[in-house]
Specification:
alpha/beta, 133 residues, 7 strands
């Protein structure tokens, strides 16, 4: 004999589906139950939890930890130029917003056109690179 339903699936394990299956029987869904008398507690508990970002620009970092892989793949695609012994990286053209991180093992001389974090600036300048903001 085939069973069409799992045991208690239509009743929630309580015999009658009216008493068990709906959100009102469990008190609601999500943040329900904070209204009327409990509203003050709920509002103070959830204060400053909403952060809004109105920027339509997607922020994608160019991480110096993975610079070796990134530079090799971008060089194969022809998106990075060599200027003497430096790699020229134009962040906007490549779709990156900022240079972040520090070099791991490999060190490159980079000429970066765009923004960079403080640590990334120090590391790039220490290796003989330049940053043009």
């Amino acid at each position: 004999m085939n069973r069409k339903h799992l045991r208690g699936s239509s009743t929630g394990g309580r015999g009658s589906g009216k008493r068990a299956r709906h959100a009102g029987n469990r008190g609601g869904v999500g943040r329900a139950g904070g209204g009327k008398r409990g509203q003050q507690k709920l509002m103070s508990f959830h204060a400053n939890t909403h952060t809004y970002s109105y920027s339509s620009v997607k922020k994608v970092p160019f991480n110096l930890n993975d610079a070796g892989k990134l530079i090799e793949s971008l060089k194969k695609k022809g998106k990075i130029n060599m200027n003497g012994d430096r790699y020229e990286i134009k962040l906007k053209d490549l779709g990156y917003s900022k240079v972040c991180g520090k070099f791991r093992n490999e060190k490159f001389k980079l000429a970066v056109y765009g923004k960079a974090s403080v640590k990334a600036k120090d590391d790039i300048l220490a290796n003989g690179g330049e940053i043009y903001e």
